[in-house]
Amino acid sequence: MKKYLAPLVAGFSIGVIENVPVLGNMACCILLPLASYYALVLDQKANKNYDYIPYSKGLLFGFLTGVFATAFGSLIDLLLTYVFKSNNFTVVANEFVKSLQDFPLDAQLKKQMTDTLLKAKDDIATYGFSFFYAVIFTLDQLFINSIFGSIGGLVGTKLINSSKDRNLNNPN
What we know:
This protein has helices at 5-17, 27-47, 55-84, 88-100, 107-127, 131-169. The chain contains six helices and no strands.
């Protein structure tokens, strides 16, 4: 586990930030790639190993940062939802149901989707938890965070390795 402590720390940080109202909007596209880069830097400092980083390690660290961000972010979101019996989904659910009517889908399918979404909203308002919401939210976050974390890991690897190239070519 110590080997993957840096992505765990970076993922936890982003998992917390994802649930902060204003910062959460930037978490996936800006902060998560930066956290993946930070995980690589943190790993170098912790191991005192400043050699070139293989791209496979950058990809793995970025992916793991995204997975850990999903795990912690989803857990925190579900706990806050349980406590407050409300979240972003409950706020926009009715508008989303209205927009479903404009989709070119079968009437029975629209009704089924509408019933599922409204039941999830009602379950959250009543019990503070919806299994449907928990699964869909976690899978959505896992998909997005793992992609942006992987991108950040690859770009971070390139940045770190290119700074080493500059230092080798400029021995001042």
